[in-house]
Amino acid sequence: MPAGSEPVTLPRTWRPLGPRIAAPAFALILVAAFAALWLRFDESTKDSVNVLQKLTIFAIVGLAMALLFAMARSRVEATTEGLVVVNGYRRRTIEWAEVGTVRVPQGAPWPHLDLGDDERVSLMGIHTSDGRRAEIAVRELRAVVADHRVD
After folding, report:
1. pTM assigned to the model
2. pLDDT tens across 94-115, in order?
3. Which residues cross the membrane (predicted)?
């Protein structure tokens, strides 16, 4: 553990700040833009849009919102049993015996966890775009991994 740092108590969860702010903002902008566009149409234009076209727009907006929500729900949880990595809608539990090294490749949007045998798990719950907050999260996660390493 780095000098002067507090030990991390478990369970501990790291979540990205940027996507948690951006997702609802973009969702609101998307819905507001489509609503404003619809309200600006004259009645003849509104009448010419059929049900299938309306459903297509709702599907596109729904898909965009689902993707935004997936990014916002990403997280990394350290528990006494291991790590729980939630990337979008995929949840993966990794026991401490499987956990390898936490790496942050130059220019990568998030760190990854080496599991050995050329297997890597992206840790989308820590976004490097969060700057100092991400640096602290990586440092804390590395300390937790070091404390629970099974050799």
Report:
1. 0.85
2. 999 999 999 999 999 999 999 9
3. 21-39, 51-70
